[in-house]
Amino acid sequence: PGSPAGRAVGEGSPGGGGRRVFSPAGEFREFSRRQLRDMERLFRQYDAGKDGFIDLMELKLMMEKLGAPQTHLGLKNMIKEVDEDLDSKLSFREFLLIFRKAAAGELQEDSGLHALARLSEIDVSTEGVKGAKNFFEAKAQAINEASRFEEEIKAEQEEKKKQAEELKQRKAAFKELQSTFTQ
Fold first, then answer.
1. Which CATH number fits domain 25-120: 1.10.238.10, 3.30.540.10, 3.60.15.10, 2.40.70.10?
2. 23: left (phi over 0), alpha (psi -120 to 50) or beta
3. Which phi and psi (to 5°) does residue 90 adopt?
4. Bridging pattern class, strands 90-91 and 53-54
5. DSSP run (H or E) holding 35
6. What is the DSSP string of 47-111?
7. How far is CA 134 from CA 70, 90, 162, in A?
8. pTM, whole model, 2 decimals?
9. How far is the CA of 157 from the CAs of 105, 112, 164, 165, 169, in angstroms?
10. CB proximity list for 159: less than 8 A, separation 6 or greater
11. Residue 141 has pLDDT above 70, yes or no
């Protein structure tokens, strides 16, 4: 629950009409867990309303603090470029799309989103979408983590079996001891 991979910011509320829960680590595999945490921290820092979204005024404040103030129209265009659900605000998923597009070189050099990605101190270019080596290393690490997770589950199951057997033996010993006193 403490990591971005375990929760969704501004996506899929409980009873939210069947919307699936957004998993940043699952959908944005081109970014490391550290990068996702950094992006989530940045998102939460500027989500002044703490509603899981960055609206126009919060984006305005963010861009001013990053030293790249935008016009009202410029801010609206920034949101429109990644606003998939057309709610005129940025969810965490849409916020991550900015960095995906930046890493893939899909943002215009003079756009507000390019400035946001460049000035946010989250360096997506070091790993980025184009880094196949990193992608496959991350994939191998995920497989290793999954097998380690399975090993931990097996160890826990073995421990539970052992504890159940010990309990069974203690109960049998207690009944035996009890029977000597009841005669």
1. 1.10.238.10
2. beta
3. -100, 120
4. antiparallel
5. helix 33-46
6. -TT-SSEE-HHHHHHHHHHTT----HHHHHHHHHHH-TT-SSSEEHHHHHHHHHHHHTT-S-TTS
7. 34, 28, 41
8. 0.56
9. 48, 53, 10, 12, 18
10. none
11. no
Q: What is the pLDDT of residues 10-56, one digit of tens each?
A: 444 444 445 567 788 888 888 888 889 999 999 999 999 999 999 99
- The tokens describing 107, both together, are 């943002």
| Whole-Å CA distances, 42 to 26, 47, 65, 118, 154 | 20, 9, 12, 13, 38
pLDDT digit string, tens, across residues 64-114: 988 889 999 999 999 999 999 999 999 999 999 988 888 888 888 778 888
